[in-house]
Specification:
alpha+beta, Phosphorylase Kinase, domain 1, Transferase(Phosphotransferase), domain 1, three-stranded antiparallel sheet, 7 helices
């Protein structure tokens, strides 16, 4: 939805990234999502989430000024056979921490994938692109973290997200909550470990159908050094039924709690 440029903040003398609303996406819906991305990310203060400095408009061009991340998208770092196990576990812990901060604020990302995760040269991870995120809404007293922000913002049946990284409920166009992000996290973790996505589809079946119906190939079939506990974590993240996945995440640890 946006094009990102490297720029310099002339007032503060710092390097920044400027995301401009891509031509052709200037509809009211496109602008709403663009603003939503800025609002969602700016509401969070976490080292694993890109910092939003400002949102501006000049000459009828809308743009977001954000933290410049000196690194590469995770999608460009994953190699055939997967990343080294120590690196995978380090990145996974950082991504989980960033998601935990978003979920604690009632924000569901809805588009977690390697292309939306930056890895810096010194090994830090930054989650970005909250353009499809769901912002929290006021809820009656007594509502749980699980339901906070889970009411659909799109029409029922409308699929939003990226094929191959969506949860089953997202691929079906159903309402999602934080457990949808847990499923997407499981896909990213599987891909970091193996170099392939667990639900890739084929010429005769769509990726969405694979997500809805197929079971991923066991990790130990693809990589012998994956600890059984890691394999159990990935398997639980990739459960088809949301109730069987991890429900929440402790902000003080790198593991989800049932």
């Amino acid at each position: 939805m946006g094009i990102v440029y490297e720029a310099v903040d002339a007032r503060l003398g710092r390097k920044v990234a400027v995301k401009i609303l891509r031509e052709g996406h200037g509809s009211e819906e496109g602008k709403r999502r663009f603003l939503q991305e800025a609002q969602a990310a700016s509401a969070l203060n976490h080292p694993g989430i890109v910092t939003i400095h400002d949102i501006e408009s000049a000459d009828n061009v809308d743009f977001i000024v954000m933290e410049y991340v000196d690194g590469s998208p995770l999608s460009g770092l994953i190699v055939p056979g997967g990343l080294p196990l120590v690196q995978v576990l380090d990145y996974a812990g950082q991504i989980a921490g960033a998601l935990g901060a978003a979920h604690a604020a009632g924000i569901v990302h809805r588009d977690l994938k390697p292309a939306n995760i930056m890895a810096t040269r010194d090994g830090r991870v930054k989650v970005l692109d909250f353009g499809l995120s769901r912002l929290p809404r006021p809820e009656p007293l007594g509502s749980s973290e699980m339901t906070r922000g889970s009411a659909p913002e799109t029409m029922p049946g409308v699929v939003m997200g990226t094929g191959g990284y969506m949860s089953p409920e997202q691929a079906s166009g159903d309402a999602v909550d934080i457990r949808s992000d847990v499923f997407s996290f499981g896909i990213v973790l599987y891909e970091m470990l193996t170099g392939v996505r667990p639900f890739a589809g084929d010429p005769h079946r769509s990726t969405s159908r694979a997500v809805l119906q197929d079971q991923p190939r066991p990790l130990h079939d693809l990589r012998s050094d994956v600890p059984p506990e890691v394999e159990r974590i990935v398997a639980r993240c990739l459960e088809k039924e949301p109730a069987k996945r991890y429900a929440s995440r402790s902000r003080s640890t790198a593991t989800w709690e049932p």
